[in-house]
Amino acid sequence: MGFHLHRRVRLGPLYLNIHNTRVTSWGFKLGRFSRNMTHGKTTFDTPGPGHYTFRGKRRR
Questions:
Q1: Which stretches does the entry tag as region Disordered (predicted)?
Q2: Where are the alpha helices (DSSP H) in the chain?
Q3: Averaged pLDDT, 19-48
Q4: 45 CB burial (10 A radius; 0-12, 13-18, 19+)
Q5: For residue 27, is pLDDT > 90?
C-alpha cells in the first residue's frame, strides 16, 4: 500500500483536484453549474441530493 493524499484546492470559482503531488483534474463551479475541463463533464445540481450530468468524454 502506501500513503495517498487527495485534496481539492479552490481558487474562487476554479478548483484543482490533487492526488499526491499531481493535478488529476481541474474545472470551475458557478452556483449550481460546474464544468470539469479534464473529463469534459458539465453538471447541474438539482434540488435535493441529485445532479444531472450533460456530457463527458468516454474512457478507452
A1: 38-60
A2: none
A3: 92
A4: middle
A5: yes
